Amino acid sequence: MENQVELFAQHIQVRRQRLEQALDETGFEGLVISSGTPMRYYADDMDASFRSTPHFAHWLPLSGPHHLLYLRRGQRPQLVRVAPEDYWYEQAPLGEPFWAGEFEIHEVSGEKQAFDVVKRKGKSVAFVGDAPRLAREDGFLDSEINPPNLLARMDWDRSFKTPYEVACLGEASAVAGRAHRVAREAFARGADELEIHHAFVGAAHCPEDQLAYPSIVCLDEKGAILHYTGKRRGVRGRVLLIDAGTRHLGYCSDITRTWCASDADATFRELVSGLDDLQRVLCTLVRPGLAYPELQRQAHVRIGDLLLALGVLRLGGEEAFERGLTAPFFPHGLGHFLGLQVHDVSGHQEARGGGRLAPPSHSPFLRTTRTIEAGMVFTIEPGIYFIEMLLREKRSGADANMFDWALIDRLAPFGGARIEDNVLVTHDGHRNLTRPHI
Ligand SMILES: [Mn+2]
Hints:
Elements: H1 4-26, E1 30-34, H2 54-57, E2 68-72, E3 78-82, E4 104-108, H3 111-117, E5 125-128, H4 133-137, H5 148-157, H6 163-188, H7 193-204, E6 216-219, E7 239-244, E8 247-248, E9 251-252, E10 255-260, H8 266-285, H9 292-310, H10 317-322, E11 349-351, E12 354-356, E13 377-380, E14 383-385, H11 388-396, H12 405-411, E15 416-418, E16 421-425, E17 430-432
Parallel strand pairs: 1-5, 3-4
Antiparallel strand pairs: 1-2, 2-3, 6-7, 7-10, 8-9, 11-12, 13-16, 14-15, 16-17
The protein binds manganese (II) ion.
The site of manganese (II) ion has 5 residues, from loops.
């Protein structure tokens, strides 16, 4: 990343401005954020792979539990780093990370001592974190712990990315894009699902638990299972649907591609290339001022038109959508916010102070109901699937003759297709963070 130090300084400047506004609006004098507590498996002595509190990660990419960040108006952010005396795990010195210059850094050996460094007595300070026990013991009032009116503002502000965050998301897309290309080559050589997954992880060059989410690698009929995480060995396929992403400094990519071998059904190959064209068109519709649910409607109509062109449906997209006939083929939302979380926060938030914008009744799973604004980053991921559970009722319904069931049964063994890119909203349109890399 070029100019990383400057970009980060600017990011912290924006964070401080936004936080001061949020403190003014909620009446707190400061904020303590905990990086989080490890999650231990029940009746075990092992922890799940640790992930920082996203609000903490919004300020800096320091990994590990129990660190505290103390933020006050007009003061340099204070970071209390917890580095225990412990020979079981590596306790590497902090060194000089690119972000260090923005913080007043203290080091302590335990979580309790971290609270002692934060001198907040007599002030009204909020605490944000997953384990408020120590905060309570330190004297935080219940009304100061994870206050909803402050959290709503912090969530809202996360939907507008700074140039530093855009650079991180772009790098995550670049790394994952490269890994997608390598996974595709493995598929072309006849690899099975587990081998394709390993090809992706190897090219992403990261430990598996540092992927953005468990990869979805589907050959043929498994493509119709939206969150299939099995990894079959010894099975070759004619169609690969792979949904996999990586992280860069905490920020995620979330990318899906569908590839066909030359012996896949010709109509299914047309379906995939038609979906790819349609996905690109949907990206070009992205611009500030448009309500995201309108994109969802457009996706349904265009998917209906494609299904008519392929002969799967016998009516046009607009009518097919109105009669609910595109829903069984496209039963998920067109996209979601992307950032420190794969499904980033505040997609349904009505305003900075809170409130909820419910998804439209035709698309209850839509994760983004906001009006599109510059600086947002979200996915555009239309899909077409042959899911018998959803098609079954249509086979005998009033509109049964609007479907070519023989063709559907011929295509079903190929599962489904999805194409997903990560898109930044600019002042007059969009920038596709993914396409340049695949
Ligand atoms: Mn996604």
